[in-house]
Amino acid sequence: MVCLGCWLPWPLLAATGATFQVSASIVPGCLVVGGVTQYGNLNFGTYSALSTQVVKVALSSGVTVQCTPGVALSMSVDGGLHNSGGRNVQLNGGTARVAYQLFQDAAYSQSLGIAQSVNVPYLSTNANAITLPIYGYMQLPGNRPGGIYSDVVQVQLSF
């Protein structure tokens, strides 16, 4: 006796559900947005050549730093183009100078030394809009020639 149905293939059971792996790797870091070649402006304003007042200003920034929450952000600022015994603005086209100082806080109590690395504080709530804490202080001498005085300083960010 021959079994005719014995040669028919049996239906195979196939898996109808399975899993696959999904992953992503997020690298912590910071991003400078806008003002990539110039981080802002420290403008002490316009005064009489005879003025002896103290002028305090904050960095007006065209730049925003965005960091992954928890990343340690720091900055250092060099002595500028006219660093001679400290930071100075110099009369454009001349040699007269006026000294100025930089601070890392709005209370002007924490000096920002030349090439000193300082932490840039931020909270997780402003991690996408971090501003650089740079504040300028100048005691006008009251005896310099009139004109425009300027300096250029280099800021280095590290994270």
TrEMBL record:
<dbReference type="InterPro" id="IPR053167">
    <property type="entry name" value="Spore_coat_component"/>
</dbReference>
<protein>
    <submittedName>
        <fullName>Spore coat protein U domain-containing protein</fullName>
    </submittedName>
</protein>
<feature type="domain" description="Spore coat protein U/FanG">
    <location>
        <begin position="18"/>
        <end position="155"/>
    </location>
</feature>
<dbReference type="InterPro" id="IPR007893">
    <property type="entry name" value="Spore_coat_U/FanG"/>
</dbReference>
<dbReference type="Pfam" id="PF05229">
    <property type="entry name" value="SCPU"/>
</dbReference>
<keyword id="KW-0946">Virion</keyword>
<keyword id="KW-0167">Capsid protein</keyword>
